[in-house]
Amino acid sequence: MSHSDAERAIGQLVSTLQQDLQRYTGISVTEVVKAGSMGHGTTVPGNFDIDLVLYSSNVEGDNVRDYGYGSYLKKLEEFITDRRVFGWGTISNVSTTRYAVQFKYQNNVDVDLLVSPVWWDYSPNRPDKFFLYLRDKVPNDAETRHRFSVNASKWQVAFMKSRPSKVKELITRAKAWRNRLWPKSEGGRGRPSSFLISLLVLRAYEKKENQRSGYASNDERRTTEQLKSIVRNHRSMDIYWEEYYQERDYPTLLQLRTPRLVDPANPANNVYLSGIGSYSKNQRSHDYADCGDGDWSEFERKVEQFDLEKSVQEIQEPQRRYYY
């Protein structure tokens, strides 16, 4: 399946959700946000995965806080497996986690279907209502706050889409390295999530730009050097962006001590912890799967092999020689 074919397939799936979900389940759809690698524009060729986040007025923040997403996900799974909606062979490998209904669509695209309350009244471009709810209504414990990570997807996608195309290309290369060094078929510890990889490469690129001299420099080489430096010195990491919030505005949400790598769309999510952890053989990676364990030792060791000067094709097929 080509990338354009995958995009068309996802478009068909989104249209079906918008047209039929409420009729079959009672869950209205205010907006469907395309997140994950395809939504962020950082898909590694041959690895089509997407998070579809359904923002619905029928999903209540208090219910998510107290009971999780189980009741909503049960309805979504029933909808996805309903042969009146999807024909034979369209949906396969269906499973449900604490946060998502996971399935393969048209045998090629890995889909995570998630839900969120609608966190805006008049200004959908601002997450302030979401931040205030986290501050005032959600207990200050990592597990409960992590439950709301998916709710920030709308603004995470907007944040990543506004980054330069060069950054997205370098993120794609870094994810290809991650996939090569932590094969899903083997399982292991310390596999960085796609979101963690994206934020680290973005900050490495920004630091490269800030330190640029008047002479022409190699973007890939300088970004690689900065990325390795950040990971080597991760114990003192202090990274955050202030596009959606100011640190002083939500002191009870942000972890004030280092190390921290704060989600640009959710001050309560320290990606330094949530973005890295253990995984089982052939387990589907998912940025909302658990709170992570923050053990960077394996990442610190393997990052020395990263080389963002190599193309994705060279990373995926290291045994071949390429001439330009």
Automatic annotation (TrEMBL):
<dbReference type="GO" id="GO:0016020">
    <property type="term" value="C:membrane"/>
</dbReference>
<dbReference type="InterPro" id="IPR006116">
    <property type="entry name" value="NT_2-5OAS_ClassI-CCAase"/>
</dbReference>
<dbReference type="GO" id="GO:0005829">
    <property type="term" value="C:cytosol"/>
</dbReference>
<protein>
    <submittedName>
        <fullName>Putative (2-5)A-1 synthetase</fullName>
    </submittedName>
</protein>
<comment type="similarity">
    <text>Belongs to the 2-5A synthase family.</text>
</comment>
<dbReference type="Pfam" id="PF10421">
    <property type="entry name" value="OAS1_C"/>
</dbReference>
<feature type="domain" description="2'-5'-oligoadenylate synthetase 1">
    <location>
        <begin position="143"/>
        <end position="271"/>
    </location>
</feature>
<dbReference type="InterPro" id="IPR018952">
    <property type="entry name" value="2-5-oligoAdlate_synth_1_dom2/C"/>
</dbReference>
<dbReference type="GO" id="GO:0005654">
    <property type="term" value="C:nucleoplasm"/>
</dbReference>
<dbReference type="GO" id="GO:0001730">
    <property type="term" value="F:2'-5'-oligoadenylate synthetase activity"/>
</dbReference>
<dbReference type="InterPro" id="IPR043519">
    <property type="entry name" value="NT_sf"/>
</dbReference>
<dbReference type="GO" id="GO:0003725">
    <property type="term" value="F:double-stranded RNA binding"/>
</dbReference>
